[in-house]
Amino acid sequence: MLAATFSCYGAQVNKTELIEEIAKSADITKASATRALDAMIEAVTTSLQKNDSVTLVGFGTFSVGERAARAGRNPRTKEAIKIKAAKVPKFKAGKALKDAVN
Hints:
By secondary structure, the protein is of the alpha+beta class. It is 38% helix and 26% strand. The protein folds into two domains: 1-50, no CATH class; 53-102, HU Protein, Chain A, CATH 4.10.520. The longest helix is centred in the middle third of the chain and has 20 residues, at 30-49. It is elongated, with a radius of gyration of 18 Å.
């Protein structure tokens, strides 16, 4: 499992550390790992913009959810405000990922 090999296991991993681990694990250059990760992120983003979902079997599913319009408060002024409805990205972990975490 990829996360088990990180030297900072249990800590937050940033993009640079993830790229380093991908490069090491796949035996490719950091430049190639960067391009691969960026391409994957771009592909998921483009699919979500089209309101499609992306399923990576065993890992999880990226999809678009709807957040309803609602009333809120400006924390600074305490004034009531209207918050517009919005589309939000969602991720549902797959069974293999859930099992790996537990």
